[in-house]
Amino acid sequence: MLDPVPAARPATGLAVRCTRALLSPWSRFSLLVAVLLGAAATMLLLEPQRLLATGWPARFSGGAVAVILFGVGYGVCTVAFVPRPLLNLAAGALFGTQAGLAAALAGTVLGAGISFGLGRVLGQDALRTLLRGRWLKAADGQLSRHGFRSMLALRLFPGVPFAAANYCAAVSRMGYPPFLVATGLGSIPNTAAYVVAGSEASSPTSPAFLAAMGFIVLTGIGAAVVAWRKRHRLAAE
User: Fold this and answer.
1) Cα–Cα distance list, 183 to 104, 198, 236 (Å)
2) Distance of alpha carbon 148 from alpha carbon 124, whole angstroms
3) d(Cα 122, Cα 28) in Å, to the nearest integer?
4) Chain segment 106-146, per-residue pLDDT in tens
5) Is the pTM of this model over 0.85?
6) CA pseudo-torsion sign 110, 111, 116, 122
7) What is the DSSP string of 159-180?
8) Considering only CA atoms, which of 227, 189, 229 is closest in space to residue 104?
């Protein structure tokens, strides 16, 4: 009798290799880069900053619905690297202090959560292999061991870009709930200052506008001082 024909193993082996390649850390990281570049390009074409000049579309001016839609759009825009100060000013100019602050904070947490999820799923495995520098190792250790208070400090002092903080936290071993809670609480002061400035932009001599701008300047100086001291401490170590 003839021996049975062996199964075609090369095809199975090729399929397994292709699957592993597609699911490899660097393939997922490449997908993350492609998604972020696509989102950034889309925002450049849509020009969301025009909201400050043209206002909210009339068909979406229905109170709470408009606030919710703006919050969702805010979150998506932060993922696409639209500067948060611009979005906060728009929130205040469009909805006033209270509703604008609610929309901006909700969008901040939403955008941070999306970025953290993308970074954790698509980028963590690949980027952790690059943590060889002293500063990178120090940041990873700080966020991994003291995630909540470290992220709270980063949000309170706006010296680190929003997106950079999101992806640094995602690459570290920081948990999801502490990240979101620290982001929400730490973003309140600076976000409120920009929202108030946006809502009072038509009255640049009003006490509220001057107080908001003073707070923004002081926190910026404080962030620069903290970053300078941290840099020299790391250099000394």
Assistant:
1) 12, 21, 30
2) 19
3) 5
4) 999 999 999 998 888 876 666 666 555 555 566 666 777 77
5) no
6) positive
7) TS-HHHHHHHHHHTT--HHHHH
8) 189
